[in-house]
Amino acid sequence: MNPILKLHIGALCLSACACFASNDDTLVRPLQDQWADIKYKQDTKQHVDSYQALAEQAHKLVESNPSKAEPLIWEGIALSSEAGAKGGLGALSLAKEAKQKFDQAIQLDNQALDGSAYTSLATLYAKVPGWPLGFGDKNKAEDLFKKALALNPQGIDANFFYGEFLADQGKTAEAIKHLDTALKAAPRPRRELADKGRRQEVEVLLKNLSK
C-alpha cells in the first residue's frame, strides 16, 4: 500500500494532553471538535471535502493569529488528514504543506499543545515516502517522536503514533509498551470523542500485535 494512503495524523489532536496549564487550546477548540466529528462520525466518502474545509477554516485562524502556534498545528493536522483521506501521489503536496505548518509552529512555540507539532511532524516523516518521491525519513521520525514524548510522556497520541511507528519497524515489545501507556492516558478535557476513537485504534493495534 502506498504509505500516503496510511496517513492518519490525526489526531494529531493529537497530542494535546489532559492538562492545558501551559497550553491554551481555547482558540482551536472548534477545530478539534470538528476534526473528531469528521474522523470518528462521518462517512469516509466525505472526508476529503470535510478535511479540506477544516484546513481552510484553520488557515483563516492562522491569518488572524499570526503569533500563535496552535492554529498552525491544526492547519497542519487538517492538511495531513486530508492527505490521508485523499491518498496516492496527489496527497504528497498536501503532506508537504502540512510539514511547513508544523515547522512554522515549532519555530513559534515548540511546546504548544504539549508538543503536538512534533508528534504530527514525526508521523509525516514516518508515513510519507522517502526520496525521490517525498521527504519521508525514519531517522527523523524517531528523533521527533522522542522530542514529543519528552514534552508529553503520558500523552495518548504521542504514545499511540510512536507505538505504531515501532510496530512498523518490527519492534513489537517496545511498541506494546507505548501502546499500553496510551491506553492509560488521562482523559483530555472536552476531548471525549477523540479519546474514545484513539483508544479504539490503540486496542486494534495491540490485538494485531498479539496475534
Total count of strands:
1
Q: Estimate the mean pLDDT confidence.
A: 89
Beta-strand portion reads under 5%
Determine the CATH superfamily of the domain at 3-13 and 26-152.
Answer: Tetratricopeptide repeat domain
Produce the secondary structure layout.
Blueprint: E1 11-15, H1 29-41, H2 47-64, H3 69-86, H4 92-108, H5 116-127, H6 138-151, H7 156-168, H8 172-183, H9 192-209
Helix pairs in contact: 1-2, 2-3, 3-4, 3-5, 4-5, 5-6, 5-7, 6-7, 7-8, 7-9, 8-9
Key features?
globular, Serine Threonine Protein Phosphatase 5, Tetratricopeptide repeat, 211 residues, mainly alpha
Tell me about this structure.
The chain is mainly alpha-helical. The chain has a domain at 3-13 and 26-152: Alpha Horseshoe (Serine Threonine Protein Phosphatase 5, Tetratricopeptide repeat), CATH 1.25.40.10. 64% of the residues lie in helices and 2% in strands. The chain is built from nine helices and one strand. It has helices at 29-41, 47-64, 69-86, 92-108, 116-127, 138-151, 156-168, 172-183, 192-209, and one strand spanning 11-15. Helix 4 (92-108) runs antiparallel to helix 5 (116-127). The longest helix has 18 residues, at 47-64. The radius of gyration is 15 Å and the shape is globular.
What's this entry about, in short?
The protein is mainly alpha-helical and 211 residues long. It has helices spanning 29-41, 47-64, 69-86, 92-108, 116-127, 138-151, 156-168, 172-183, 192-209; one strand spanning 11-15. It has a domain at 3-13 and 26-152: Serine Threonine Protein Phosphatase 5, Tetratricopeptide repeat.
